[in-house]
Amino acid sequence: MDKEKTFSFGTDFHGNLQNIDQFLRVSKERNVDHVIFGGDITPKKMAVKLADGKGIILQSGDASSDIPAFDIKDAQMLSDSGYMLFNSELTNDKLDKIKSIFEKFEILAHFSASDKDTQVAFTADEIQLIESYILPRLSEALKNDPLGKKIFETLAQKMEKEDATSSVDEFLNRLVLNFKIGFLLKNSLFNNKRMRNSYLCGKQDATDQEFFNRFNYGFGLGKFSLTTLYRYASKQIPPWAQWNDINQNLEKHSLDKQRQFLQELFKRIQDFRQQFRGSVSMIMGNDDHFELSEDFDKADNSGLLIHATNRVVQLADDIQLAGYSFVPPSSANYKEWYKEEAELQNDLRELSMQIRSGVQYLITNTHCPPNQTRLSQGRDPQSAKTDFGSQAIRDFISQTQPVVALTGHIHESWQITGKVADNIGNSVVFNPGASEFKPRILLGNLKNPDEFEIVE
Would you place residue 64 in the very low, low, confident or very high pLDDT band (cuts 50, 70, 90)? Predict the structure, then answer.
């Protein structure tokens, strides 16, 4: 008896392991014959994992500040829901203190030395953190960063006329001394000789002369305007400056993280295959690092799955699947995946030649949907464009006439049109929507492609 040709399809998971687990669970419960993954499998977002297990997502803060807002979550939860985690040695408590320090730096950056009404004092814990965490980084920047070197040279020239601050480290030690004096003044601790001597001179039995020499040296820094220094430090030194740089250049930092994700995914597929005898196939998408093709090939060679990116594969004796991952150009990362329509046409013409003549059931799995369909409608706040499909892919489907054409890439088309299916000739074309935030699982049957189900 001919076996039923049932399949499940999920696409654009973007690293959400919770939704992938749901996809595999539904596929097993429904006893489908073929599990098919669309493109964009790996994570595309980043978060920071703190040393105490907390995870933070950077969000836009006050427009007048360089300090972002932090959405605090459990780091493992963020990882499972599709975030690449970048480790930090900071704890949430220490991060709060650093944030407070730079909030005060930003206040100081807006006032000159003559603004007597400005009273900004650091706490003892903040001063300790300035010494241990911020000063080493600021010292490195003022010595080696071209802009930092220029800022310090300008400050040194101004101070040379009245003081003998000769080096970056000497200047920064004097700055901390100034902060300590502010702490003593704010907390009315000058009458406690043992404490003030220990705090400014490093010894409780310092003489009055030693104390006042240190006091005058540190206090004297207040006559110089350090607004440029505070502005520079607020932009260059905070940990979120590095995190923002990673986020804005994620393509340079994401390969290892996406590889780590794939290893976790492959473990799940291996466990799934223990009780599943059908096929598991995958294609890549334009948010998957191009170099990951090697990882998918290794998994294919081991028999774990069928890698169908830009090739025709055999799912069963009478079923072939033609996979294709290139998309028309857009503004996202991983430009290796972008090709103009003429190039897409050439690729797909060559791909169609790999399809076996007379194959009973042909499935196409193209990451990009065909244009002029209900599945290619999207939104772009930067343009009036609404159709993000490909003419080349439309022609490919029209010419090869697969029983089922599976697509993704345009996450929101089903929300705009209210449809997940369309037709090109005799082919039923699907885009169930992205499974990035919640599962959008397509269940279908090659024998009756018009009858399908979406499971969320």
Answer: low
